[in-house]
Amino acid sequence: MKRRVVITGMGAVTPIGNNIEEIWESLKNGKGGIGKVTKFDASDYPVSIAGEVKNFMPEEYIDRKNLKKMDYFTQYAVYSSIQAVEDAGIKFENEDTERVGIVVGSGIGGMSTFETQHSILLEKGPKRLSPFFIPMIIPDIAPGHISMVYGLKGPNYAVVSACATAVHAFGDAFRIIQRGEADVMITGGAEAPVTPIGLAGFAAMKALSTRNDEPEKASRPFDKKRDGFIVSEGAGILVLESLEHARKRNAKIYCEIGGMGATADAYHLTAPDPEGDGAYRAMKNAVLDAEMKLEDVDYINAHGTSTEYNDKIETYAIKRLFGQRAYEIPISSTKSMTGHMLGAAGGIELISTILTIVNSIIPPTINYEFPDKECDLDYTPNIAKEKEVNNALNNGFGFGGHNASVLLKKLNES
After folding, report:
1. Which of 62, 235, 259, 372 lies at a CB distance of 3.0 to 4.6 Å from 76, suitable for a disulfide?
2. Checking DSSP bridges between strand 100-105 and strand 156-157, what pairing results, if any?
3. Which residues have a catalytic role annotated?
4. pLDDT tens digits, one per residue of 98-139
5. Exposed, middle or buried: residue 216 (CB in 10 Å: 0-12, 13-18, 19+)?
6. What distance in Å separates the CA atoms of residue 28 and residue 361, rounded to the nearest whole number?
């Protein structure tokens, strides 16, 4: 028998806040976090804007000695994980640590460390490279570090599926508990791609907005004048538990996981299937897995990247799945505020979806000014709205044709 799985803790570091309270205030008030790049001189770059984490003080949670062994993506992951564990109120000294696991992913890993150490190699030679170079860049080091903070010995690995990473990681953690292989899982994604080569690489693909003079208006999902996404950094981490385990320790429960769907486009390196087939099937499978009807879905947190093709094809996939009812379902893209956090995007968007269910407030899609006839659904333009949400879909799609969708629902006590 499948075990029921619930969410009991959340933590995050983002361009719009470094804890859940700050982030929710930004989301419901439509406050964006995009600005000029400050981490390095990007004045000569075709794109000079990004979603940077601000006022981040990792020493609040991480020992300085360990910080030196961590790339920024790992710092974000560990910091957010400690927040999430504190929020869950779980004491691991009271748990069987062999039944507590971690699935935390990153689309790229330690990009800043790679750049820095490569410069050292070229300028000073191979003997000057840090012995921590390899452990700092590999994506799986983040869950490794988290496990060592708490001595957790259950399933532990990273997922890498570009911008679908965190949703896939969340889905894997859900399945592990559902199958009975663990009682508690820490999951989500982390990313730190705001680096010289990261920004230049995405710009070279023509994937980014070049609205350099108006950074606060550059991320505009579903808007007719969208011209690319905004590369951003941070982490979004969640604590999952079996319902039985959470109830046994009288945990605060945010909501329940209903189902998950994962598919492939098998179409193109970066462009989505023009028929939206993979996105359509991922959402459909999540609803089927939850044993629900399409009419039960009250809200969709869209992948909504602010690129020409993603937004219109995701819109098409939603209409293909829900038919005429697609026009009645409120949708939002919180990337309009956070920018695109790549492998971490799904983590913060899952958190946003959970907070939508808990607070009955749908965050807006900001910067929506010019309607697009190919994007003609209700994207909750510019202003949040109050609405009871019992069941919600959260989408994550990635380069390579990776698609994932999760259905979250209010806990039914029966």
Report:
1. 235
2. parallel
3. 163, 303, 340
4. 999 999 999 999 999 999 999 999 999 999 999 999 999 999
5. middle
6. 7
